[in-house]
Amino acid sequence: MNLDKIENPNFIKELNQDELKDLANDIRQFIIKNVSKTGGHFSSNLGIVELTIALHYVFDSPKDKMIFDVGHQSYVHKILTGRAKDFNTLRQFNGLSGFQKRYESEHDCWEAGHSSTAISAGTGMAIARDLNHQNGEIICIVGDAAIMSGESFEALNYLGSINSKVIVILNDNEMSISKNVGGLSNFFSKIRMSTRYRKARDNYAKILGRNKFGNIIYQKTKKIKDYVKEDVIEDNIFGEFGLDYIGPVDGHDFNDLIEALNMAKQMTHSVVVHVHTIKGKGYSLAEKDHEGRYHGVSPFDYHVGIIKNNTEIQSWSAIVTSHIQNFMRQDEDIVVITPAMTYGSCLNEVFKEFPQRCFDVGIAEEHAMTFAAGLSNAGKKPYITIYSSFLQRAYDQINHDIARMNLPCLIGVDRAGLVGPDGDTHHGVFDISFLSSIPNIVMMTPCDAYEAKCMINTAFNHFDKPYILRFPKGSVQNINVGFKQEIEIGTWDKIIYSTDNFLTIITYDIKVLEVKKMIKDNNLHVNLINARFIKPMDITMLHQLYNDKQKLIIYETDIMIGSLGTMIAYYYSNNHMSMDIDYFGINDHYTPQGSIETLLDYEHININDLYELIKEKYEERKS
């Protein structure tokens, strides 16, 4: 089938099962070839092909609402709803989003970049449907371990207490990004056996039912088998919530899928359909991947697979983690915590070396942070790393459970700043704004690997308060640093400074080196300050800038409200110190997807925009 010609999913209902299998194969090959070119979420979409086709076979979108949790598993849904022709623009500026987007299609009724929102949203939409006396099913497709997060359980608990109907599809692929963890994962492992049990039972009955003697044996053993079925399948957690349960269902068998979905459709109350799928189905390297390398991919040659580069240029995550690992070898009190980001935060080797001191708590940022607080309170030295865009889920825990009690810890804020193709749900541009108002914290943002390691040293050598280390996505030159080099808390660094210059740029992180290069390449007589501590600020240097009558440019690429620039402006204003200040930053809106360079241009915060403002300041000075 030419997938580019699909306009809507109605055609699926006319296909027989052989044709559905052919369609699944076509879509799987399409995803492998296209996503390997553009990058995107790979394994989860290969695993959900048959399930998504079956959903559109049984239900009628957009009348029936399909909510994908998390949104990155919606590629097959996009293909079946007429967007295959746009896949060459996937995750590019003004292109097809890697998540459900309401503006893209009437078939996208919800948007999510993180996990565990589908059942809550679906419950709200179901109640609204009933209040409006409307028809239509609400189907929540919950995958990549999103069911294990607290919000999913809160929603299930409420859903079981009301009459409004929601169909929850549990897409159980045994994985979140990497291998699932926890008691609920163990429960699913147990209950998953019943898929094999059911097929074995059917074969057993069929074989023994061929003659009279076989029937006698079958009847004698049936009670034992029924007891096993009841214990393994029917006594499950969803029944405790007051929800019906169907499954487990083979997520790659159209006959089983369609039968189960039709059964769920006919019910008059909420039901969980437990579907067992294989993450990465159809691409052997992804099927065998238990670390998460094929979860979200950059462009790669699918004939060869992802090749690991061994160079001195390493990711920021790897640089930070390797230094933490070195510290752990000399300090047995250091422990590491991650909410299901073992691979993304480059923690695999640390987990292998220190399995008793490393904890993957699953997709549970709130629990992860208070868990870290408990460890700290008991005398351990926790390092917890969370992506910036996911950290906002743990704001209350940082504020109330860590900072308020001034519990020492090191929080790594990974993927800080603009992240590019994942778009508005993933840009890490808010963490400075929502953390800067919290008392007791120290917020550090290094410009290179040397500063990053010195800041880790500062945190672990003192370990007297909550330290926050924010670092971007991308790579950096590795530099060897011992354990003794530190940076005095709250001090900024004069990269370029002369009182003969009238203009000073204040910036932080990798922008320091970018601005330094721009100044030198253009032979500009401009001062440059590395504001490596967002909090506390270098008050001594702020006063020196005031006394030296400097005009300031605060150059940031994060959200402007609550930024370093606003904190500097407040300090000067509160102390009645008049300063001439210009600001760069993202205005009061969400930034779309696209390459980072494209987005810097879009927001008018590129290094060239800074250069143009400097030239304007020179012209003003002359006039």
Give the topology.
Blueprint: H1 17-38, E1 40-41, H2 43-47, H3 49-58, E2 65-69, H4 75-83, H5 118-131, E3 138-143, H6 150-159, E4 167-172, H7 183-208, H8 212-234, H9 237-240, E5 244-250, H10 254-266, E6 271-276, H11 284-287, E7 296-297, E8 313-315, H12 316-330, E9 334-338, H13 348-353, E10 358-360, H14 365-377, E11 381-387, H15 388-391, H16 395-403, E12 409-416, H17 431-435, E13 442-444, H18 449-462, E14 466-472, E15 475-477, E16 493-496, E17 503-507, H19 511-521, E18 527-530, E19 533-535, H20 539-547, E20 551-559, H21 564-574, E21 581-586, H22 596-602, H23 607-622
Parallel strand pairs: 2-3, 3-4, 4-6, 5-6, 9-10, 9-11, 11-12, 12-14, 13-14, 17-18, 17-20, 20-21
Antiparallel strand pairs: 1-7, 8-15, 13-19, 16-18
How many individual β-strands?
21
Which strands sit side by side, in order, in the main sheet? 10-9-11-12-14-13-19
Unreliable stretches covering 5 or more consecutive residues: 191-197, 220-234
Whole-number mean pLDDT: 89
Principal-axes geometry comes out as: globular
Q: Major beta sheet, specifics?
A: 7 strands, mixed
DSSP helix count?
Answer: 23
How big a fraction of the residues is strand? Answer: 15-25%
Structure class: alpha/beta
